[in-house]
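Researcher: Quick test of sequence recovery. Tokens follow.
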């Protein structure tokens, strides 16, 4: 049985005893008329009354017991709901001697109760509820962790997020803030005339980003499907169809490694804007951050670990190759020479794939020497076209993409570009991606003939951007692991973890 230790067995026995006494430990149709926060606000005037109580008022609050102290014929408890914590005073005379005697033995920390009574102020000056009635709403079988040490084990906190939220108020605040951020982002785009749309989560072809997909099987159709790595190609089809400003707040799935900024299932905002350019997207991104800071009541300079990030707009903009030289400190004369880059990376004791293409090696220079230094918000522009298979070529330099990536605190937050709308050029790029895939690149794009077909009907000049919601929340809530902003992050199964530990030994 799952509940098999002595404390859990004792609690099960108490639940059975409550049933015998006519108190259903798992009742339903239980309603409250006020939250703890509403109670404290509504009855704050009681502190100014001469008798410091108002028996003419009655309220019913419900919450989980986080603290309980018995004092002979009375007890103090603190109950917590989503809005806050409220102290409840219970005595033998107010709820009845027989029930008080039983409740004292059967109700404990962790249980969810409802208390009905009037507001009063204790001798220590705390506004509380004097209970005339106490009901059990839910009997907890699992005891909460010990109060003073709390829930410290990070792995356990991620695996049992429900317990993490019960024990750590700050965790709930992060997820409340996340919900607020998503709401602000949605409202921001709706206010500017963008239409929110929904596109498929299962794709016949993995595309829209360079990433390894998860593969599943559709039994009814008898075909494999790919969990989407990005909604890009479907959102562009929507632009072809005639909507000129669309966005989607979506779940993406990438079958890749996990670290403090990567989870295989994550949330992205993607939007596409016809008759606009990537320069317009950068301005809109700056505007979005101004709105976020204002509505979240955050200062222009926000803390992030050891850094203080200056969010003042306009944000810095620098070209990809210039950043490698000016920020990364790499000699300019080597960045276009494949052999010189390999030699340079080896001198810096960085593992290097000597078969890698020039553009892949240039990306390695950027990743190693530039990205970690991009602390204040920075747009990196003018990426090589070879690493931008869906972006439009610059008319001034066909080897450069009209594209940017946006970084804060050494993390990529967004990626945007002028979209390629030439179906013939797109077809040729997909063919090159197929060659890369055949050569062993598992992240290279597949050939999406239907997307080429859609472009054949004409897509207006369009710019599009993807913003990582999880990383955005990390920055705005000062969290340093993506697991701390995802309610239920991906975790290795416990039995596999134990097996791996045994093999390591």
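Model:
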């Amino acid at each position: 049985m799952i509940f098999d230790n002595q404390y859990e067995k004792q609690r099960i026995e108490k639940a059975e005893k409550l049933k015998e006494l006519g108190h259903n430990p798992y009742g339903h149709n239980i309603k409250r008329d006020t939250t703890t926060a509403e109670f404290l606000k509504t009855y704050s005037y009681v502190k100014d009354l001469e008798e410091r109580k108002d028996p003419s008022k009655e309220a019913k609050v419900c919450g989980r017991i986080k603290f309980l102290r018995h004092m002979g014929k009375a007890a103090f408890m603190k109950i917590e709901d989503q809005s806050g914590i409220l102290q409840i005073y219970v005595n033998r005379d107010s709820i009845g001697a027989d029930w008080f005697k039983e409740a004292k033995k059967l109700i404990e920390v962790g249980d969810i109760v409802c208390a009905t009574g009037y507001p009063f102020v204790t001798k220590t000056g705390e506004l509380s509820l004097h209970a005339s009635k106490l009901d059990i709403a839910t009997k907890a079988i699992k005891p909460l962790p010990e109060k003073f040490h709390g829930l410290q084990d990070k792995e356990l906190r991620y695996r049992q997020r429900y317990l993490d939220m019960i024990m750590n108020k700050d965790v709930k605040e992060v997820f409340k803030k996340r919900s607020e951020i998503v709401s602000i982002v949605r409202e921001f785009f709706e206010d500017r005339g963008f239409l929110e749309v929904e596109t498929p989560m299962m794709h016949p072809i993995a595309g829209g980003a360079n990433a390894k997909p998860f593969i599943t099987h559709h039994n009814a159709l008898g075909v494999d499907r790919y969990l989407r790595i990005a909604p890009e190609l479907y959102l562009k089809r929507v632009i072809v169809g005639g909507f000129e400003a669309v966005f989607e707040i979506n779940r993406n799935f990438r079958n890749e490694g996990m670290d403090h900024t990567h989870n295989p299932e994550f949330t992205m905002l993607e939007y596409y804007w016809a008759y606009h350019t990537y320069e317009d997207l950068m301005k809109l991104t700056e505007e979005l951050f101004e709105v976020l800071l204002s509505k979240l009541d955050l200062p222009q300079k926000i803390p992030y670990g050891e850094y203080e990030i200056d969010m003042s707009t306009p944000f810095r903009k620098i070209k990809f190759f210039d950043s490698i030289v000016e920020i990364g400190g790499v000699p300019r004369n080597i960045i276009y020479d494949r052999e010189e880059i390999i030699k340079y990376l080896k001198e810096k004791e960085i593992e290097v794939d000597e078969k890698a293409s020039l553009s892949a090696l240039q990306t390695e220079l950027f990743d190693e020497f530039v990205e970690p230094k991009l602390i204040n918000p920075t747009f990196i522009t003018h990426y090589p076209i070879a690493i931008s298979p869906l972006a439009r070529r610059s008319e001034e330099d066909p080897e450069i993409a009209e594209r940017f990536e946006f970084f804060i605190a050494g993390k990529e937050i967004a990626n945007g570009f002028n979209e390629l709308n030439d179906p013939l050029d797109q077809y040729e790029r997909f063919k090159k991606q197929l060659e890369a895939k055949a050569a062993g690149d598992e992240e290279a794009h597949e050939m999406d003939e239907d997307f080429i077909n859609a472009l054949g009907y004409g897509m207006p000049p369009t710019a599009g951007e993807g913003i990582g919601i999880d990383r955005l929340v990390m920055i705005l809530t000062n969290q340093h692991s993506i697991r701390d902003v995802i309610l239920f992050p991906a975790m290795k199964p416990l039995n596999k973890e134990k097996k791996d530990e045994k093999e390591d030994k």
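The chain has 16 helices and 18 strands.
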